[in-house]
């Protein structure tokens, strides 16, 4: 239980769906005092641990911290009304994938420091990755925010938006890719006669156990693979397929490239540029 950490009061979660909710869940799980939190979501659906309202107009005094957790596509709709409710002391944490700091400053000219955060969903169980970037945060400002993110998993400040995008493409999107891999492993198990529930559990535990073991031993992935695959054995035969012509690396590379292209488009859209 971490009784010293507290969300600034008030902290607005402007949009509190999958990601805003995951961060809040992580903070609650870490024992962070979230009583100063206000979730703002048009549906008005309750969010555990905080007051929920439908619009910034109903949220009360200007926030000390505003966490932007709506979709980048909703920026045009949300920004004007929200900007009017912020003060020069409001720190903005934007989760909006691909929306650059300069674009955010243009939308919220009167706010205090602006930080872009790229989290991933496992922040909900405090095993997330959170990359942070700011053009105007002082070292002191960063030091004040860092502990809040450190309790959510592996948090790091990066020196450029390119670096932020790179981490987003691996860690932000990564849980979706890992989920697909686990599914593929489970399907292969079911195809070989396992019942589907067992196949899913076995695939999940295999990925979890491998990650956990590698994290605990700090072993390289090449060494992990080597320890499983005996020469001329069954695993080696399987690895030969994945490694042949770099098929797996190539596939992941193409997928990440496609996501990066979409990120560039979304950044352009948020700047108000027309994208074909
Ligand atoms: N999901 C991820 O893994 C992930 C990873 C990295 C970054 N992000 C970023 O996190 C942000 C949120 O993504 P998400 O996956 O959490 O989306 P989501 O589950 O769809 O949540 C979006 C939230 O925005 C709210 N919303 C919609 N219109 C709004 C408005 N006009 N004013 C205020 N709130 C509004 C929704 O309200 P209701 O709840 O009432 O529908 C909902 O709470 C995105 O910008 C995304 O780029 C997500």
* Helix-strand makeup class: alpha/beta
Assembly level:
single chain
**Roughly what percent helix?**
40-55%
Tell me the major beta sheet. 8 strands, mixed
The string of secondary-structure elements, in order, is EHEEEHEHEEHEHHHHHH
The number of helical elements comes to 10
Strand % is: 5-15%
Describe this protein's structure.
With about 280 residues, this protein is an alpha/beta fold. The chain contains 10 helices and 8 strands. It has an 8-stranded mixed beta sheet, with helices on both faces. Helix 4 links the parallel strand 7 and strand 8. Helix 6 packs across helix 7. The longest helix has 24 residues. It is elongated. The relative contact order is 0.10. The mean pLDDT is about 95. The structure holds NADP nicotinamide-adenine-dinucleotide phosphate. NADP nicotinamide-adenine-dinucleotide phosphate binds next to helix 1, helix 2 and strand 6.
List the keywords.
8 strands; binds NADP nicotinamide-adenine-dinucleotide phosphate; alpha/beta; 10 helices; 276 residues; eight-stranded mixed sheet
Concise synopsis of the structure shown:
The chain has ten helices and eight strands.
Q: How are the elements arranged and paired?
A:
Layout: E1 11-14, H1 18-29, E2 37-40, E3 51-53, E4 65-68, H2 75-85, E5 91-94, H3 101-107, E6 114-119, E7 128-134, H4 139-150, E8 153-157, H5 161-172, H6 174-191, H7 196-217, H8 221-228, H9 234-243, H10 247-270
Parallel strand pairs: 1-2, 1-4, 2-3, 4-5, 5-6, 7-8
Antiparallel strand pairs: 6-7
Helix pairs in contact: 5-10, 6-7
Bound molecules: NADP nicotinamide-adenine-dinucleotide phosphate.
């Amino acid at each position: 239980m971490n009784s010293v950490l507290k969300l600034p009061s008030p902290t607005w979660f402007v949009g509190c769906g999958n990601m805003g909710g995951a961060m809040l869940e992580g903070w609650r799980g870490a024992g962070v005092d979230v009583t100063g939190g206000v979730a703002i979501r048009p549906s008005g659906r309750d969010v555990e641990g905080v007051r929920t309202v439908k619009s910034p107009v109903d949220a009360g005094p200007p926030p000390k911290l505003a966490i932007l957790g709506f979709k980048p596509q909703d920026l045009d709709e949300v920004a004007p009304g929200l900007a009017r409710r912020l003060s020069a002391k409001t720190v903005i944490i934007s989760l909006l994938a691909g929306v650059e700091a300069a674009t955010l400053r243009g939308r919220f000219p009167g706010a205090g420091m602006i930080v872009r955060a790229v989290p991933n969903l496992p922040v909900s169980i405090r095993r997330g990755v959170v990359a942070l970037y700011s053009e105007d945060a002082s070292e002191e400002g960063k030091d004040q925010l860092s502990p809040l993110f450190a309790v959510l998993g592996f948090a790091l400040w990066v020196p450029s938006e390119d670096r932020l995008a790179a981490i987003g493409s691996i860690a932000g999107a990564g849980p979706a890719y890992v989920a697909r891999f686990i599914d593929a492993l489970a399907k292969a198990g079911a195809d070989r006669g396992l019942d589907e529930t067992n196949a899913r559990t076995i695939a999940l535990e295999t990925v979890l156990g491998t990650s956990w073991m590698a994290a605990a031993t700090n072993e390289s992935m090449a060494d992990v693979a080597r320890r499983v695959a005996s020469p001329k054995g069954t695993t080696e035969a399987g690895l030969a397929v994945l490694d042949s012509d770099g098929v797996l690396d190539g596939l992941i590379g193409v997928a990440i490239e496609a996501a990066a292209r979409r990120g560039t488009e979304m950044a352009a859209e948020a700047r108000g540029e027309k994208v074909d």
